[in-house]
Design brief:
CATH architecture of the largest domain: Alpha-Beta Complex
Number of domains: 3
Structural class: alpha+beta
Strand order of the largest sheet: 6-7-12-8-11-10-9
Protein name: Protein hydE
Length: 597
């Protein structure tokens, strides 16, 4: 019997997690072997006594090979494996990119016993997995190899129990940055706990304090400054107190990687935080133990947050250097209700074509059931929505074909003229709009009648913002953000239905862009609140795209859908789109750093 512990693995620090597993196996005197395939790492722990018993049954006349030497009986060895499972569940960090998926028990086939290498379990084990590609079979590593290759424990690794004790002011371990006998923790240079008390006292005296963190030198303060970039919440309860949040936010922010995300502050607390143009605050939890100690001390005075800033204009005394391990850059994630994560970092080396090809190549490399080379390539529907680049709705197989061409007039003056001339009762609607919002209509008709074509569907958000009075212009990122700001203030789950409608002519489809604007004006005339209307624009767009995906699957039999573009970083759009999409498609979402170009 072989126990196959399968872990999802896309971690840049894979060697550290393998070290934790191999170390625990070694402590328990268990043989463990590792291989990685299709974004999953397998930790194989054979029950050697059970394999020995099976060998004697299958090869009764053969001497027992030395690789089966083991002082334990089968049941006792199984108990050690169970202990391994329990202990790694307590000691393995709750990582976003290295996490337990499932446990399989595998009974090796007869050829495993008849062809095994009698001196080496590592060389024999691949015979138990004949379905694996040969290069994967040859990549098996044992615990000894993993431990030999790893030389870098982490200053930021602590078990859950160690963390609890270090942050408990009434514990003997309080502020003890280096717990004893922690094999995976690299010692920090540790000051006396009075250092942390002094830092907190300076903060409470409204001073800005330089502090050495795992992510570089930061200036700490209890009030935001012009240079503030991040708000640190002292604990999970503080996040729930000050921000609108859901469980996936909490689970992600509390993970080993300690990513950042943008959240909407509760209205009563909004003035306390530095918000961006969309009304969001970039927040995170303490990402190293010294920051966590600062947080624990602040919580004693009912202070639930503090701010991190870069300040190049002032000279501060050099802070105490804890000598942190080098860490990977902080991620800023958009987190959906169902736990799907979108890394909002945009790498600079891509074009739209290379971005698409990179995802489709990654998909085929990680899909175990990928068709053979001589079979027809699979078709993909590609939807690319960016706030900065032309939109794309493509069908890609051997070559790209345009499914929906995006091109529309975005001069509000010409749009309203078209509504008057081309839509039933359009003139009456614009008259009603003029009676309801005379200054808005006057401002629109004061614009020059110069055509401004756009190929970016999100530009319609700026047009809507201008027409509805959210912004003073219609063709800048600020105008789109004005709509997003109002949408984020909406606290319910469903907005009004804005009319996104496809027009069909001569075997081509196009979007009726002016109907979208017409629909928004109708709701404005009905005195709908701006926040509800703005939310409805994003909600209805999400539903429209999901319908397009469903129709493409039904009519063209395309199951594979790739979504790209920085609009996926908008949590409203992401949540609504994921909720509306058909469940029977193969959805491909952006890889880290490959959201946009």
């Amino acid at each position: 019997m072989i126990y196959d512990f399968r872990f999802y693995n896309k971690n840049q620090d894979e060697s550290f997690f393998l070290f934790l597993l191999a170390s625990k196996a070694q402590v328990l005197n268990l043989e463990a072997f590792f291989y990685t395939y299709a974004e999953h790492t397998h930790c194989l722990i054979p029950n050697i006594p059970a394999l020995r018993e099976s060998y004697t049954q299958i090869c009764p006349n053969q001497p027992i090979p030395s690789l089966f030497d083991c002082p334990y009986e089968s049941k006792a060895y199984a108990q050690l494996i169970l202990q391994f499972a329990n202990e790694i569940s307590l000691e393995l960090p709750l990582s976003l990119y290295f996490c337990f998926r499932e446990l399989h028990t595998i009974a090796p086939p007869t050829p495993f016993y008849t062809t095994l290498c009698k001196e080496s379990l590592r060389q024999s084990l691949p015979h138990a997995f004949p379905e694996l590609p040969l290069h994967i079979q040859n990549s098996f590593q044992d615990s000894h190899t993993i431990l030999t290759q790893f030389h870098t424990p982490k200053t930021y690794y602590y078990t859950a129990l160690e963390t609890k004790e270090i942050l408990n002011p009434s514990s003997d371990m309080f502020a003890l940055l280096n717990p004893p006998n922690s094999y995976a923790h690299k010692p920090l240079i540790s000051p006396d706990k009075t250092y942390f008390i002094h830092i907190v006292n300076m903060l409470k005296e409204k001073q800005s304090v330089p502090f050495c963190t795992q992510r570089g030198l930061q200036i700490l303060s209890l009030s935001p400054t012009p240079h503030t970039h991040t708000t640190i919440l002292c604990d999970i309860a503080s996040i729930k107190t000050y921000f609108r949040t859901h469980q996936a936010h909490i689970d992600t922010l509390a993970s080993f990687e300690k990513p950042l995300t943008h959240l909407v502050p509760k209205e009563v607390f909004q003035e306390h935080f530095p918000i961006d143009e969309c009304g969001l605050v970039l927040i995170g939890l303490p990402y190293d133990m010294p920051l966590a100690l600062i947080s624990a001390l602040l919580l004693q005075d009912d202070i639930g947050y503090f701010f991190l800033s870069y300040d190049m204009q002032h000279t501060y005394p050099a802070p105490f250097d804890f000598c942190h391990s080098q860490a990977f850059n902080a991620q800023t994630l958009t987190i959906s209700h169902n736990g799907i994560l979108i890394d909002t970092h945009i790498a600079q080396q891509y074009t739209l074509e290379s971005l698409i090809n990179a995802h489709l190549h990654t998909y085929t490399q990680t899909d175990i059931s990928t068709p053979s080379e001589d079979s027809l390539p699979q078709s993909h529907l590609i939807i690319y929505l960016s706030t900065t680049h032309p939109s794309a709705f493509l069908i890609k197989d051997q070559k790209s074909k345009i499914l929906l061409d995006i091109a529309f007039e975005c001069n509000p003056h010409l749009i309203l003229q078209n509504i008057i001339q081309s839509y039933e009762n359009g003139d009456e609607l614009i008259k009603s709009f003029g009676a309801h919002s005379p200054q808005l209509l006057k401002r629109i008709f004061a614009l020059p009648e110069t055509s401004q074509l756009s190929h970016n569907l999100t530009d319609i958000f700026g047009v809507i913002s201008f027409i509805l009075g959210f912004s003073s212009t219609y063709d800048t990122p600020t105008d789109k953000n004005a709509l997003f700001y109002r949408a984020y203030r909406f606290v319910r789950e469903r907005g009004p239905r804005i009319d996104y409608k496809l027009l069909r002519k001569d075997n081509t489809i196009s979007l009726d862009y002016n109907r979208i604007v017409r629909s928004c004006i109708s709701f404005k005339c009905a005195d709908m609140e701006d926040e509800i209307l703005a939310y409805g624009v994003l909600d209805s767009l999400s539903e429209f795209l999901a319908t397009l995906v469903r129709d493409t699957k039904t009519n063209l039999a395309i199951d594979n859908v790739l979504l790209l573009g920085d609009m996926l970083g908008n949590s409203i759009f992401l949540d609504k789109l994921l909720g509306y999409l058909p469940k029977d498609i193969h959805l491909i979402l952006p890889q880290d750093g490959m959201l946009d170009y």
